[in-house]
Amino acid sequence: MAPKNKKSEKKGLLQTFYTKYFTIDFAKSLIFNPAQLSLLTYFILTVELALNIFIVFRVRYTEIDWIAYMQECEGFINGTLDYAQLKGDTGPLVYPSFFVYIYSLLYFITSRGSNIRLAQFIFIAIYLLQLWLVLRLYSKTRKVPPYIIIISIFTSYRIHSIYSLRLFNDPVAILFLYIALNLFMDRKWSSGSVIFSLAVGIKMNILLFAPAILMLYLACLGFLRTIYQLSICASVQLLIGAPFLLTHPISYIKGSFDLGRVFEHKWTVNYRFLDRETFENSTFHVALLILHLVLLVVVTKPCYLFFKNYARLRTLQAQFEPQIAAENREIEQEIQQKMKKLKKKVNDKEEQLSTEQKNFLKSFEKGLKNQFGEQNQPKPEPKDEDDPKKVEIHFDQCVQLAILPIFLINFIGIVCARSLHYQFYVWYFHSLPYLSWFTDYHTSFKILILFLIEFCWNQYPSTVFSSVLLHACHTILLFGVIRKIYKEVAMAKQASSKQK
C-alpha cells in the first residue's frame, strides 16, 4: 500500500499547487502586490538579459567616452602617476583612482579597449547585477507594486542605452553603491563602508548619498562607532589613492575631486533654457549650492527620525527573532507528530480491510455515483482549524524607513545639480518609482510623473521645453515626498502622545 499512498500524496500536492498558483487572484497579486516582487525578480532579470543582448546585436554602438577612458588608463599602465598628465581625447582625467584600476582591468580584458562587443557584454552583466540588488531592496520594502517596477525597467530607452551602448563609468559607480546599500540593510556595516568608499573612488557623485549615510551611521551605531566607520571610508580612500598621493598629491586631489569643474552647456539636460553665460556663472553655482544646503536642512530632522525608528525596529528584530525561531521549531515538531499519528491511523484502517472488502467498497461507491450522481457524495473532512501555524513577521519591511531618506537626500542633490548629462540618469533612475509611490498623489499622477521624467531624458538634444518640464517634475515630486515625510512624522508623534 505504500506506493499507492505516495502517488495519492503527490497528486494532492500537485492539486494544491495548481489551485493556489493557477488562479486569477494569484495573477493579480503578481501584478499589484508588492510582497510578490521577489517571485518576479528572476523573470525580470531573464527578460532584461534577452532585451540587452538584442539591443547589443541590433543597435549600433556609439562612441562617447570609452576611447578616452582607455587612453587615460594607458598612461597609468605605462607608469604615469601625475594626474595632470593622464589625458584622453575628451580632456584630462577627472575621476578618482579606483576608476583607473577598474578601467585598466577592462583595458586588458578587452584587448586594449578594442573589443567593444566584449565590453558591452560586461556592462550587461553589471546592469543585471545592479538590477538584482535594486529589486532585492524593493522586495524588502514591499512598497511599490510590481507592475510599476516592471514597466519602468522594461521601457526605459535611455537606461538601456547608457548600460549597453555607451560604457560610461556611472553604471559601475552605481553598482558599487547598491552593493553598499544592501550591505548596510543587512547590517554589515564595515563591509558596506568599504564598498561605499570604493564607489566614491569611481566617481564623486556618490558623495550625494553621504549625508544620508552619515545619519544612518549615527542613528544605528552611535557616535563612536560612526567615527570608526568614517575612518574605514577614509582609509580606503588613502589606500586606493596611495600611488598618486605619494607622488603627486596636489595633482591627484585637484584632478579627481574637482568641485569647481565647469560642465559644457551643449550636454546639459536640465538647464537648456539658460544661456551659456548664466549657465557657467559662478554666482549661479553658489545659489544652487545654497539651495542644496537649505533643502538638506529642511529634511534632516524627519530623515533622522526615520533612521532612528529603523534602528529601533532592528533592535526589536534582534530581540524577537530567537524567540520566534524557538516557537516555530516547537510548532514544526507538533505538526510532524500530528502527521505521524495521522499516517499511522490511515495505515491501521487499511490493514483492517481485506482485498475482497476493498473491491466491494469500490464497486458499491461506483454504483452509488451512477444512481444518485456526484451531489450525494460524502464531503471531505474539514481541516482542523486548530492546526498550529508558523509565526511569520516580515521584519525587513522596516527597510522602508532607511531607504526613503537615502533616496530622498540623493534626489535633492539631483534637483540642485549644476548640470545633468545623459549618463547621470542612472544616479537616481531606480529610486524614482519608490519616491513617487511614497507621495500622496493619485496613482495615475504618480505614473504620469515617471513617464514625463523618462520623456525628458529621451530628448536628444535637450530642448527648452524638456528642461523646464524636467525641473517641474522634479519639483512636484520633491514637494510630494517632503510633505508626506513631515506628515508621517506628525502622525507618529500623535500616536506616541496618545500612548503616553
UniProtKB/TrEMBL annotation:
Catalysed transformations (reactions): an alpha-D-Man-(1->2)-alpha-D-Man-(1->2)-alpha-D-Man-(1->3)-[alpha-D-Man-(1->6)]-beta-D-Man-(1->4)-beta-D-GlcNAc-(1->4)-alpha-D-GlcNAc-diphospho-di-trans,poly-cis-dolichol + a di-trans,poly-cis-dolichyl beta-D-mannosyl phosphate = an alpha-D-Man-(1->2)-alpha-D-Man-(1->2)-alpha-D-Man-(1->3)-[alpha-D-Man-(1->3)-alpha-D-Man-(1->6)]-beta-D-Man-(1->4)-beta-D-GlcNAc-(1->4)-alpha-D-GlcNAc-diphospho-di-trans,poly-cis-dolichol + a di-trans,poly-cis-dolichyl phosphate + H(+)
Keywords: Coiled coil, Endoplasmic reticulum, Glycosyltransferase, Membrane, Transferase, Transmembrane, Transmembrane helix
InterPro entries reported in the protein's UniProt record: Glycosyltransferase_ALG3 (IPR007873)
EC number annotated for this UniProt entry: 2.4.1.258
Pathway assignment: Protein modification; protein glycosylation
Sequence intervals crossing the membrane: 37-57, 93-109, 121-138, 167-184, 196-220, 227-246, 284-307, 398-421, 464-482
Cellular localisation: Endoplasmic reticulum membrane
Name of the top EC class for this enzyme: transferase
Record membrane topology: Multi-pass membrane protein
Coiled coil segments of this chain: 325-359
Keyword Ribonucleoprotein (UniProt): no
GO MF annotation terms: dol-P-Man:Man(5)GlcNAc(2)-PP-Dol alpha-1,3-mannosyltransferase activity
GO cellular component: endoplasmic reticulum membrane
Designated name of the protein: dolichyl-P-Man:Man5GlcNAc2-PP-dolichol alpha-1,3-mannosyltransferase
Lineage, uppermost ranks: Eukaryota, Metazoa, Ecdysozoa, Arthropoda, Hexapoda
